[in-house]
Amino acid sequence: MAVVGPVVTVALAVAGLAGPAVTSARAAAPAGGVATAYVANASDNTVSVIDTPSGTVRATVAVGDGPQAVAAAPDGSRVYVPDIGSNTVSVLDTVSNTLVATATVGSSPTAVALTPDGAHAYVVDLGADAVSVLDTATDRVTGTIPVGAGPDAVAVSPDGSRAYVSNSGSGTVSVIDTGSGTVTATVPVGAFPVAVAVSPDGTLAYTANLDDHTLSAIDTATGTVTGTVPLAAAPYALALSPDGTHAYLANGPANTVSVVDTTARAVTATVAAGTDPQGVAFTPDGTQAYVTDLGSSAVTVLNTATATISATVPVGHSPAGLAIPLTVGPPPVVTSVSPAFGPPAGGTPVTVTGTHLAGTTAVSFGPGHSAVSFSCTATSCTAVAPAAPVGTVDVQVTTPAGTSAAVGADQYRYAAADVGVALAATPVPGLLGGRIDYTVTITDHGPSALASATVTVPLPGPMTATSGDCTVSGRTVSCGAGALANGASTTRHFSVPVGLLTLNLPYTVTATRTASDPVDLNPGNDSATRTCTVVTSLIISCD
Fold first, then answer.
1. Three-state DSSP class for 503?
2. Average pLDDT of span 316-335
3. Core vs surface per residue 10-45: b (16+ CB within 10 A) or e
4. What pLDDT does residue 354 have?
5. H/E/C letters for each residue in 178-237?
6. Contacts of 424 by beta carbon, 8 Å cutoff, 6+ apart
7. Which of 179, 306, 341, 511 is in the most buried spot, having the most CB atoms within 10 Å?
8. Which pLDDT value is given to residue 525?
9. Is the pLDDT score of 21 beyond 80?
């Protein structure tokens, strides 16, 4: 037996809970949840929070004295950790991964299981030979049920009508009617049963019997043992696969895990684990089994398809029990949007950067406007902006954990600036240097501020031009404008000498907006035209 807290106990089958707890959480957890492993570190008085997709510890939470086991609420929002040394159950919020409540229970609590509706938690009090019934709404004990000697583990039936408690001191399982809160049957099993689990269909209950190295199968309808599977080593913990077809048993000092086919009732594989494995739990999809290694302060991850080790995750000291619920994780956070503006017609690909964006179910550009499409990783989304009215909106990301808060960094501007172009032509007569001075006026008629605009003026031959604030290339004049507020204007100028012009012919010049940012939705005022006629260099007329 291993000392995992101030009281001597087998890291008890903390894990007898793993099967039922996983099954309940799997059934009720929100779609798109993340499988998260919560590991009770008995010597550290902490819980390690492992992100199973990456296999990394993302948080460590301080709890009570000598945490032994972990069980999850069916919706994955809370996990419950019995603390054997402080006679408490620590309650953790799985979104923030913080301790949110501490419930006082009976003496030396070693295990806990929740009803499928999440309303009650059944806590095994090893030192009191009893089970405390915890109301999860108030985190207070509402009843105490005497059971057999040395209760170590508990599992609740899938329908919530029964709780099964393995009593290591009496070699029995106490069957509790959860409606009446009384023990309705006591079933003899193997020697020193330290773990218990119920099949997904509720027809069988299994116990891991430490002293005689066996796995007992109980028919829950008759309350009798219908089969016994001999094991090669002493089992310290037990978990059932989500489909109930296999039982995994952590074999303590043997440093192995036994894999039992529950239909054939035979051991089909023995897998090496870390030092002194004490707890075992399956991921909700059944593809992995996590095994706590008390002596090596790590969790061994097993590939259930091949019954081989796929990873090892360092955790705290003396890891004992664990559970792997589907959790919603932290809510998403948006930290930047690029580009930060686009046309009201939509269609702009926008990169949304932030945290906790994996599993995104929606990206909105203001109320009632969902992204045309989106694709997300944990830290960024690429979303195509939908059509929306001119104005500034918050780009918000929704995951099963909630919707990102509206912040300044998430703002996206649907922008349109109506660029008006005016053209004035002023004759400047001269005996030798007559010319025509043209003035281009660029006005932002809004509603958005103008970032930039270009007005292009092609000149008819043989006209040429000079300019101090426009670019002249051959017979093309390009006049640019920078930022303009709604209602503001700016002017640009160029001059055309008249010496080369044919007399008495009209010359028509048109200035046209050829580019602008943001988009211009009104083409009606994008160009202006002036016609000038040169009679002599001293007589120039422009309309």
1. coil
2. 92
3. bbbbbbbbbbbbbbbbbebbbeebbbbbbbbbbbbb
4. 97
5. CCCCEEEEEEECCCCEEEEEECCCCCEEEEEECCCCEEEEEECCCCEEEEEEECCCCCCE
6. 438, 439, 441, 530
7. 511
8. 97
9. no
Mark 481-509 as b/e (b = at least 16 C-beta within 10 Å): beebeeeeebebbbbbbbeebeeeeebeb
pLDDT tier, 106 (very low <50, low <70, confident <90, very high otherwise): very high
- Cα 24 to Cα 21: distance, rounded to the nearest angstrom: 5
Name residue 294's amino acid: L
Strand ordering across the sheet containing 214-219: 193-198, 204-209, 214-219, 224-230
| Distance (Å) of CA 525 to CA 342, 442, 449, 529 | 22, 10, 17, 11
For residue 9, CA distances in Å to 5, 58, 194, 348, 384 come to 8, 29, 10, 62, 57
Name the phi and psi angles at 26, rounded to 5.
-65, -35
Letter string b/e over residues 397-422, b meaning 16 or more CB atoms within 10 A of that residue's CB:
bbbbbeebeeeeebbbbbbbbbbbbb
More confident residue, 95 or 324: 324
Confidence of residue 241 (pLDDT cuts 50, 70, 90): very high
- Check residue 13 and report its DSSP letter: G
Q: How far apart are CA 281 and CA 288, in angstroms?
A: 9
Q: Which amino acid is at 282?
A: F
514 is written with which tokens?
A: 């050829």
CB–CB of 401/77 below 8 Å?
no
Give per-residue burial for 160-188: e unless 16+ CB within 10 Å, then b: bebbbbbbbebbbbbbbebeeeebebebe
φ, ψ of residue 44 in degrees (nearest 5): -90, -15
Q: Name the CA radius of gyration of the chain, rounded.
A: 38
Do the beta carbons of residue 363 and residue 396 sit within 8 Å?
Answer: yes
The structure tokens 């006591």 sit at: 186
The tokens describing 507, both together, are 């010359």
Three-point CA angle 48, 65, 235, nearest 5°: 70
Whole-angstrom distance, CA of residue 39 vs CA of residue 215: 24
Give me the chain's average pLDDT, please.
92
Question: Residue 385: its pLDDT value, please?
Answer: 98
CA 90 to chain CA centroid, Å, is: 24
CA distance 411 to 395: 6
